[in-house]
Specification:
about 240 residues; alpha+beta; four-stranded antiparallel sheet; Homeodomain-like_sf
């Protein structure tokens, strides 16, 4: 492993890049976000993201964060997941990662600790939240409105009147350019907007209301259908 530590001010984003090595994206303190194409993840200290070598991505700090750079040579790594995977960071793995990113670890002790750390990589089976951007300027206007206010309850017909397009036209555009119906796309956009709030400990009722759901139970049901686990399981300590 190659390791490093970076203190990131809130709002700091690295440009889109890729690594020749596998990376475990983890923050010892604070919340970080990762975007790879149209997919996105939000990671409190209890979660990390395995990023395979060669996958283009961006990493940023949603608040002040202590990012740890943990890289593994693909030729020597016992883990070879081909797609990004969220990983559970339990206390033992956390202590090992902190130990490995510290100074003065002897080579033999480092190799033994790395072997244990790889054994402790426990994937959490979640579906990444994907919010593709349309190309059509009318659909882009709808996208901007929804991303600016996920709780906006206008129907596609109402959006259409505001952007100068028929409801059916907009519906076809979202299916063609985003590869999903508008209703699914808006759900994904709302859930992505909810992730930073959940990671920062915002009460569930407040999160649900701020992203357009009438109740916490409705929000939890939508989250579980889309992601595969409840918000509590996604961010469990």
């Amino acid at each position: 492993m190659v390791l490093g530590a970076f203190d990131l001010p809130a709002g700091t984003w690295f440009p889109t890049h890729e690594h020749p090595a596998h990376q475990l994206v983890w923050s010892a303190r604070g919340v970080v976000a990762v975007k790879a194409g149209d997919a996105g993840w939000v990671l409190p200290p209890t979660r990390a993201l395995w990023m395979p070598a060669g996958v283009r991505h961006r990493t940023g700090a949603l608040g002040r964060a202590a990012l740890r750079g943990i890289y593994a040579d693909p030729a020597r790594s016992p883990v070879s997941w081909p797609e990004p995977r969220m990983v559970v960071v339990r206390p033992l793995l956390r202590e090992l990662l902190e130990y490995l990113t510290g100074d003065g670890v002897a080579p033999g002790a480092r190799l033994r600790a790395e072997a244990v750390a790889f054994d402790l990589l426990e994937p959490l089976d979640v579906v990444p939240i994907v919010v593709p951007s349309p190309e059509d300027p009318r659909a882009r206007d709808v996208e901007r409105a929804v991303l600016a206010n996920p709780a906006d309850s206008r129907t596609l017909a109402e959006f259409g009147r505001d952007v100068g397009a028929a409801e059916r036209t907009l519906a076809r555009i979202f299916v063609r350019e985003c590869r999903m119906p508008f209703g699914t796309w808006r759900t994904q956009a709302r859930l992505r907007a909810a992730l930073p709030l959940l990671a920062q400990g915002t009460p569930l009722e407040t999160v649900a209301f701020r992203v357009g759901y009438s109740s916490a139970s409705a929000f939890v049901a939508a989250f579980r259908r889309a992601v595969g686990v409840t918000p509590g399981a996604y961010f469990a300590g």
